Every structure is written in C-alpha cells, then in structure tokens.
Amino acid sequence: MVVTAKPLTAHANIAILGAGAIGQLMYHKLGLTGQSGQAEECNDVVLIGRQPHTQQRTLQFTDSNGRTHHTTATILNRDDTHLANINLLIVCVKAYQVENALLPLLSKLTPNCHVVLLHNGLVPHLAVSAALKHYPGLGLSLGTTSQAALKINQWHIKHTGFGVTQLGHYCGTPLSAELKLRLQVLHSDNQPLEWYQPVLPILWQKLAINAVINPLSALNKCANGQLAAEKYQPQIKAIINELVDVAKCDGIELAPSQLLTRVKQVIALTSANFSSMYQDVAHHRATEIDYINGYICQQARRYNLAVPINQSLVAKIVALSQQ
Ligand code: KPL
Fold this sequence. Notes:
- It catalyses: (R)-pantoate + NADP(+) = 2-dehydropantoate + NADPH + H(+).
- Residues 14-170 form the Ketopantoate reductase N-terminal domain.
- Catalyzes the NADPH-dependent reduction of ketopantoate into pantoic acid.
- Its EC number is 1.1.1.169.
- Pathway: Cofactor biosynthesis; (R)-pantothenate biosynthesis; (R)-pantoate from 3-methyl-2-oxobutanoate: step 2/2.
- By secondary structure, the chain is of the alpha/beta class.
- The chain folds into 2 domains: 14-197, 3-Layer(aba) Sandwich (Rossmann fold), CATH 3.40.50.720; 201-321, N-(1-d-carboxylethyl)-l-norvaline Dehydrogenase, domain 2.
- The chain has 10 helices and 11 strands.
- The protein has an 11-stranded mixed β-sheet with strand order 8-9-3-4-2-1-5-6-7-10-11, sandwiched between helices.
- It is globular.
- The structure holds ketopantoate (KPL).
- Ketopantoate is lined by residues 120, 146, 148, 161, 209-210, 213-214, 224, 266, 270, 273, 275-276.
- Ketopantoate (KPL) binds next to helix 5.
C-alpha cells in the first residue's frame, strides 16, 4: 500500500524525536491511521533525527495484518527553524539519550509546546522538569507504551507487540484539549490509549515490566513469550518483590500480585517480540539497564534496602554488553 504524504513541514506541528523503532511506530500510528482506521494522507507529523540536514525519506511500516505501507516522511535536522512550529514533541529516544537530545531543543520550540517522554525506565524526567522551569509556557507529560516494533532495516519497521499506551501530565502547562484529541488516533481496540493522574505509579508499573522482561530476555537470548516458562517464575517474582519494596519507600504503593499479572499479560501480548534490551545487546548498543534495574538498585541504596536479584541482573547485563 502506498501512501505519499506531501512533504510539507510547514503544516507539521507534531514532532517525534528519535527515529528508532518506537519513534517510527508513533510516526506511522499518528500519521497513517485516520478516523476511519484507513491509511490516509497526514502531513502534520515529522520525525527529528540526527542527520546533518533535513531530508525526506520513504518509510515502510508492516502493520499487524502483514500489509506494508509506504510513506514519505520529513526528517528534521535538530537545528531546523521549523522546530518553532512544533507544539507537541514526543520523545522516543533511549533513556540515556533524553537529556542530550532534548534539552538543546527546548529553546527552539513554540513557547507553549508540550513535551511527552516515552522511553523505558525512570530518571530523565527529573532533569527535564528542572530545565522546564526556564520555559514557563512549556508542559511535560510522561508516558509509556507496551507496544513494540522490530526494525527490518533503518527505515522499515514491523509492528510486533500490541499493548497499551499510558500517558499523564507531570508538570508545566497541561496538554491542550485539541492535542489530546489528536493523540486519540493512538487508541484502537487492542492497543488502547489511557490517561492517568498521577502518572508515576503507572511508570513504576512499566518499570516492573521492563525490569523483568528486558534483562531476562537479553540474558537468555529469547523472545518475550518464552519467559512464560515455569523455570523463570521464581526469578520474576523476586524482581517484582524487590521493586515493590523500593517503590513503597518512594511513596508509590504497588500490589505484587497485580504487578505479576500485568507482567504476565505483557509477556503474552508481546510474545513474538524480542525486547529492546535483547536487541541492544545483540547489536552491541548501549542498554537502558541503568535506568531500569539500575534505577531500582540506586533507589534501594538511598533507603538501605537489599535488592540482590536486581543487582545481579545489572551486573550480568553489564558483563554481557562488554563481551
Ligand atoms: O518495552 C518493552 C521493551 O522491549 O523495551 C517491552 C514491553 C518489554 C516489549 O518488548
């Protein structure tokens, strides 16, 4: 299926920072899914990439029905003056890239732009919210998605995991009703979009999902679905129990049994998917371990809690990445 978006940056007011698998997935879902659910032309979305010049690229998206859509996307350079038109910026870079990629852009955006962080793990929201104090019109929402995509090549992704996208306001100017409505295209039957207030408990819940699936799939070199096997269950429970104790000290009450059910659901929903950490290790890229299990260990140290299982996972992933 060929859908050619007019290469119009002038009308674009939504930008996705980071053209990795999740960034491209968000691009296609916002850009291709019209109210009717049919692929249709949409030219209010651009990607922001690392390349030295703004460029047009043909992107391919293989959807859940195995249909491949082609679209011409604008990929803005990080200095493009068009950034001044962007009033919704969805940040899909890795947790360890957020500060370097996002903070230099803040002064270039529309003064009332709303930023949404959509990475795995916790930590970067602290630096971003501190930086936002210098830009009183800007706002910050935090979010997480259990959807997954596999990169077939740099500009071709396949939708491999169907889950929920959860968002909530964190600080600054709230998201306008108009943009909230625009984001509703992310909502479809088996891939709901949900709003939460407060949002932090939801991010801790997603932290649990990533703290289990990501390191275990990377260490055991397996697809997410294989973690449903009986032999992994004691370790999964231990990771969750440690996380629940740490979250409690951070003022977040989580029920271990509910978390376990949620983790199992995501394992089932993304069973064919290879987690982002599995893929990072396989491609010799940096992992987000410091922002996932590493964050649990960091907070545990603050509260003098022992988290041996999470600690050993961090050590094993670090060792694996160095091999
Ligand atoms: O977020 C993910 C990831 O791989 O980083 C999950 C939900 C585990 C899907 O693979």
